[in-house]
Design goal:
Elements (H helix, E strand, L loop, with lengths): L26 E5 L2 H10 L8 E4 L4 E4 L10 E6 L5 E6 L5
Parallel strand pairs: 1-5
Antiparallel strand pairs: 2-3, 2-4, 4-5
């Protein structure tokens, strides 16, 4: 699958890899609007986190207030049905 306008594709299927289901961590997608991406995930029944930001001083993730600017440091996290962990990141600058 290749999203419209993307130079990146995702392959889904049987026999593509020998890795056990649920063993992949850190798969990442980059979007232009993190809030819209999260809303669509939730609408489709995905248990996605609130939009998160990383605080380098405490080295922790926390929910960003809706009023906070969305930039390269804005993420949403979720697991797929096999247990693989995904990160959705907003590309630089507010959408």
């Amino acid at each position: 699958m290749t999203p419209p306008g993307s130079a990146c594709s995702i392959t889904i299927g049987t026999g593509i890899t020998e890795a056990p289901p649920g063993s992949v961590q850190g798969l990442q997608l980059v979007v232009s609007d993190i809030d819209a991406a999260r809303a669509e995930l939730v609408e489709r029944g995905v248990e996605a986190t609130e939009v998160q930001g990383f605080d380098p001083t405490t080295r922790t993730w926390s929910a960003l207030p809706e009023s906070a600017p969305r930039d390269w440091g804005s993420f949403v996290f979720f697991s797929d049905p096999d247990g693989n962990r995904w990160a959705v990141q907003q590309r630089g600058g507010a959408a």
